[in-house]
Amino acid sequence: MYGNIVAMGIVMSTDPTKIVMGRPIGQDFCEVVVLLANKPESPLFIKDDNRKTMKDAIGSHILWFLQYV
Prior knowledge:
Number of strands: 5
Order of helices and strands: EEEEHE
Oligomer: single chain
């Protein structure tokens, strides 16, 4: 997936102590709200019971690798 734009979103936080998707953001991730899925079937890096692909995450806050922002 490197180099592909799989979604459009907004970075909401890089605070490593903030809890997103049930876990702290940490040093390698950021909190992103997904606005549009360009590749709806693309898998999320961090999944939970309700969100496994980009289309599942539209309108919600997810963890995303900082290097891919």
